[in-house]
Design brief:
This protein has nine helices and 35 strands.
């Protein structure tokens, strides 16, 4: 068995979300929250991940069912975090390595923080190590209680804090690394002696300390990555933080984003060097943009779009599931859907591909060096040969192309 495994807690109902969708499937910048947590586990060398599911478990399994490194563990009744961990006991009863415990609703987690957690745990020979955060507003988080020497004495959940403990700004964002054997010895002893009548994993830490084992708590989690998601408002905040990360990475890689605050880019998007993204552009889904392109303002690029180098898409232009070759220009109010557009094609203002006939979506193929006049409508399925010219305001179907192309 691997030396390093992870348990991800993903069973919660989250009444504050007011949703029929499993909480961990709510998206942050185009990906489910749980996907981010799974990714960082893999990035730090976790080979087996035990995902504890409950509410909406079938939805979660369906979304991530193809992952070979996930073991699904059902928590039949959500009775707290310690109970969720305890549900993994049969799977890990013979495991003698280290177990990482994380929450599935923490999409802002960074691999760098987990690497530091592993390094400190190993260096200090701890039975349990947790990474903490210091927040200006710690409301809602468990507080880290230390003695006069700075040693951790326990974690008190927000609802159980005294007035003095509520003033503590060091909090528990739920980044745990524990010796597996010691972890399960402790969670088996946890009792629901708290306001919520739940089995808290934080109480297991207190039991480990009381048993004389070394427990280390050190501040390593940035305030922006400590945020979990328990409401729609918190989901929005997490998405904005993630969006800043996405855009910062793109800019570091040579992309110009003129107005980051008024631009939205999906985490799955790929954008090439020296491309310029103008304000109010929305890029959603698996979109690939080449080098030296100019997108926007007010452009909308949807899933499946591929733009080769030197493509210009202007104001209120929408592209969906289409490939545009090098040098294409569509500067004003155009819709290009389910199409392949050749090199150096000019698409005039207001021209569209009419790709849906009321029953099915049809394809448009436009050859190289074509000119599509303003206000033209291309009724799919249709194919324009290289060098075709479509006059302004023309409505064109394949039937008409075939008809006028025949010699009578």
């Amino acid at each position: 068995m691997a030396e390093r495994v992870a348990i991800i807690l993903a069973a919660g109902v989250s009444t504050r979300m007011n949703t029929q969708l499993a909480k961990v499937l709510h998206e942050v910048c185009g990906r489910p929250m749980l996907a981010y947590v799974l990714d960082v586990c893999r990035q730090v060398g976790v080979e087996k991940i035990y995902v504890v599911v409950g509410f909406g478990d079938e939805q979660v399994r369906e979304r991530f069912g193809e992952a070979s490194d996930i073991v699904w563990v059902r928590q039949p009744k959500q009775e707290g975090t310690a109970h969720a961990v305890l549900c993994c006991r049969e799977h890990l009863k013979d495991f003698e390595g280290e177990t990482l415990v994380l929450c599935g609703d923490g999409p802002l987690i960074r691999a760098e923080t987990l690497k530091t957690l592993f390094e400190r745990h190993k260096a200090e020979h701890s039975a349990a190590t947790l990474a903490t955060a210091v927040l200006d507003d710690p409301t809602g988080y468990g507080r880290i209680v230390r003695d006069a020497s700075g040693n951790i004495q326990g974690i008190v959940e927000d609802s159980d804090c005294t007035s003095e403990q509520l003033g503590i700004c060091e909090v528990n964002p739920s980044y745990y690394l524990l010796n597996n054997k010691i972890l399960f010895e402790a969670v088996e002893k946890v009792r629901p002696d708290n306001v919520k009548n739940e089995y808290y994993l934080t109480d297991a830490l207190s039991l480990i300390i009381a048993a004389g084992h070394k427990v280390l708590a050190f501040t390593a989690v940035r305030p922006d990555e400590a945020r979990g998601v328990n409401s729609r408002a918190q989901l929005s905040v997490a998405s904005k933080i993630m969006q800043r990360r996405i855009q910062r990475e793109l800019m570091e890689n040579g992309v110009t984003i003129v107005d980051p605050d008024n631009t939205w880019i999906d985490i799955r998007a790929q954008i090439g060097q020296d491309t310029v993204i103008e304000p109010f552009t929305y890029i959603h889904g698996e979109v690939k943009i080449g080098q030296d392109c100019r997108i926007g303002p007010f452009a909308y690029l949807r899933d499946g779009t591929v733009l080769k180098d030197d493509v210009v898409l202007g104001v209120f232009t929408e592209v969906k599931n289409s490939t545009l070759a090098k040098g294409v220009r569509a500067r004003h109010h155009s819709y290009i859907g389910d199409a392949v557009v050749g090199r150096n094609v000019n698409i005039g203002a207001g021209s569209i591909t009419a790709n849906f006939d009321g029953e099915k979506v049809n394809r448009t193929n436009i050859g190289n060096d074509c000119y599509i006049g303003s206000g033209a409508v291309l009724i799919a399925p249709i194919e324009l040969k290289d060098g075709s010219r479509i006059g302004a305001g023309t409505v064109v179907s394949q039937e008409e192309i075939d008809k006028f192309g025949r010699k009578e």
